[in-house]
Amino acid sequence: MFKRTDKLKKQSSKSRFRIVVDKLHLWLGLGSGLIVLIISITGCLFVFQKEINDYYYRKQLFIVPQQTPVLPLSELKKTAQATLGADKAILSITTYTHPDHAWEFLAYKGNDTALTYFGGVEYYDVVLLNPYTGQVTGKIDYKHNFFSIVKAIHWSLLLNTPYGQPIVGWSTFIFVLLLITGLIMWWPKKWNKANREKSFKVKWKASFKRVNYDLHNVLGFYALIIALVMALTGMVWAFTWFQATVYVAAAGTTTPPDRSVKESAKSTVTLTQDPLDAAFGRAQGILRGARRIFIYPARGEKGVNLIGGYKGKETYYGSDELQFDQYNAKLLGRRNDAHKNRGERLIEMNYDIHVGAIAGLPGKILAFVISFICASLPVTGFYIWWGRRKKSKKRTVMVRGAAVTDPV
């Protein structure tokens, strides 16, 4: 007679729903595990990129504060442009209210037709200037910066965005399903003491296989909520439909936010100073309290000088934005953070939530730890599957007294 193994008995006691959940968790995990591992490790590395870059480039980024006034922005821009070269137009400028930080002049050009990250970014250079003296403190090639490459792997597996980000996006979507199915599998049938011990504690003194299982099961549970938040914020960038869903859910409306840009008009008004300097001066008066002021110089005959301010030391949400005529520095438009709806604010917070910066250093430490746990889940999960696979091959059943390999 056929003698059932313990594994067969265990499977027969499961509901059809649990069998489907188990199979989904297994095969989705095996199919996406390597990409989830790569995304998680690179996310883990990227969390403290600002702190590490600030230390590594400290001679270029930081200066000795001086009591003299800063030089006109237009003069600093000319110096930076000469350093970059005429073929690399300045895309944006970042100024700092704290006197010990150099000002940044960024030139960037992408190529959507390239296959890889290195072909997709033609150049990504930043020139840093002492705003008091106009001295160039350094030039950084961010295209080949370690953390830029880490970000490109995290963002699109080092492929150009149109090719790599859908792979990362759908792998992240699968990871969300893995987290949900993992919770269902983790949930104890009975909340007795023995089950609580297995579900909430790692049995460090047990065998390696048992410790590995507990690391997958227990740490996966503890990381669940934050891991879901990080995965869902990643999906906001990957899918326009998901970003629209998040916006509608938070804003309570399907009406998109007004992001219209005004147009400059040539004027006969003669200013006593450069229009960019005049606009920057007005913006400084309006954006009081901003730690960083960003400037996107006008491009084309009808472009405007877009100037805004970030109140946080490192965060990117909550900015006020101003539009100035490039010829006469007239204020054409203003978009205050206070006027944004909940959907706009949530989308703007997406990056800061994703990297944990929204909660400061504790949030970044938490993001680092959770990313590390997420990176461990494909590894521990694979070892669980591999161990059971090897074990099932060794099992035998008795069929009329003969030893036969267990087919399960």
Description:
The chain is 52% helix and 14% strand. It contains 15 helices and ten strands. Helix 2 (16-46) crosses helix 15 (360-394) and helix 8 packs across helix 10 (208-238). The protein is elongated, with a radius of gyration of 28 Å.
Count of helical regions: 15
Question: How far is it from the N-terminal to the C-terminal residue, by CA?
Answer: 17 Å
| Overall 3D form | elongated
H/E element string?
Answer: HHHHHEEHEEHHHHHHEEEEHHHEE
Largest sheet: 8 strands, antiparallel
Rg computed from alpha carbons, rounded to a whole number of angstroms: 28 Å
Structural class by sheet pairing and helices: alpha+beta
Mean pLDDT: 90
Strand order of the largest sheet: 4-3-2-1-5-6-7-8
Provide the descriptors you would attach to this structure in a database record.
408 residues, alpha+beta, eight-stranded antiparallel sheet, two-stranded antiparallel ribbon, 15 helices, elongated, disordered N terminus, disordered C terminus
